[in-house]
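2024-03-11 09:14:02 INFO receiving multi-entity request
2024-03-11 09:14:02 INFO entity count = two
2024-03-11 09:14:03 INFO echoing inputs for audit
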Amino acid sequence: MAKPIITVENLFAQYGDTLVLKDVNLTVNKGEILVIMGGSGSGKSTLLNHMLGLKTPTSGTIMIDDVDVFTAKNRELRNLRKKMGVAFQGGALLSSLTVANNVKLPLEQNTSLDKQTIDIMVRMKLELMNMAGTGHLMPTELSGGMLKRAGLARAVVMDPKLLFFDEPSAGLDPTTAVELDELILTLRDAMNMTIVVVTHELESVFKIADRVVVLFAGEVVANGSVDEIKNSPDERVQNMINRKPNTHRDDGEVYFNRLLDKGGN
Amino acid sequence: MVYLFKSVTKLGEAARQHIDNLGLATLFLLRIVSSLFTGLVSFKQVIKQIYFIGNRSLVVIIVAALFTGMVVALQFYDTLVRFGSVDLLGSAVALSLIKELGPVMTALMLIARVGSATCSEIGIMRNEQQFDALDCMAINSYRYVMLPRLLAALICVPILTGVFDLVGIGGGYIVGIYIQGGSPGAYIQGVMDTISFKDVLVGQIKSLVFGLLIMWIPLFYGFYLHLNQKNMGAEGVSNGTTQAVVMSAIIMLFSDYIISSLAL
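2024-03-11 09:21:47 INFO inference complete, emitting structure
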């Protein structure tokens, strides 16, 4: 079996006194779409931030493409990040730049390509995201869905091997959410990307996932294919899938501690 | 006794917090300065910031300088006329503007206009994960966002201070000559005779230091907004901006006293 492109081992993280990730272990194989699923406050965005090297854990390791994200030197981390794309929940476009200038930013800063080539690449990516003709707009002029797609265009402009999505369909109308799901599948199939998606949208999970990791109160409670997750004997997973309220004591405790601590993700 | 113990603990906590912040702010500045050596600074970004700080503040500085010069001349004239020394008006206006009022007033105007805008912009960027996005794109935020702003402030503030001094002296001339009926020759001669190279140098050193403070403190407050979760969101940005403006003004005035006492 091929070596996983991402390996998370024994990851613990805490905000203040509250443990938000408890001994998280998972792997992501090359070319697959892994969905990290969980309710609000389950720690999925925290896990994503750790994978991106934006947060330092209490203990544990994350290896991406043979680089330890937490101990890597700046240069190593920069080189790794050039192979990664991240589509943030709200797009995270630089508010002072137009859409086109946002999308071309990674190319301008990280490559020595000439202006003409960069412009062509930007136009292609915007067309791929169904955003043709919007390059001159400022981020404040875009709708929520357009912001996400522009953010995605920027994330894929360097043709990364690895793509991370934070809540791609959150806050979108059903049609736009379905379009975005289709786009994720296209990126995997056409560009052979490995994709990690953090979401709690069940329709999206079952449509795009090759494998699903379910987080509950900072713990991995299920890890498997969509069918395996659907048939999971774990009550918490079934409650999530069947949209039933969760009465599990630990979850409430962690969630309310987090609210009190104001360290929620 | 318990109350006293609690008060001392609280005081100690606050002091420790301030020392922590000072250390963090110093490291922040060192990171910005060291980013100068990690690659080319975006010339386009520096020009954009010069336009924002310099060009867009010019009218405000000119208006403020004109009225400051006029008020200073009016006050000096009123005093000097009692001693029959109206001929010294040019010297008095020029010296007070170049050594003190020019740098300080320019800095205060820029703290209000540029410092607050910078802190809120950087705070919003932090809130909207724009710095996370830059990190994930392997772009050095210090070099791409902070350094152009700092360089632009270091370029613009001394120039704007020079403009303030000149316009202020002009404002003093209007009041002293056209309104009070003083001698134009004596005014201009007073200005020319009194100002030494050292006076101009001290004024410019002050404006350079103020330029650094005007940009460094708001950048710091905006960039580290997330360290205190209570500071996130719109209210957090507003609180951070207020703190940055107040702190910039206090530290600027404190450093003004230090430089003045060293220069005398």
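2024-03-11 09:21:48 INFO post-check: The interface with chain A takes residues 121, 124-125, 128-130, 132-139, 144, 229-230 of chain B (CB under 8 Å).
2024-03-11 09:21:48 INFO post-check: The mean pLDDT of chain B is 92.
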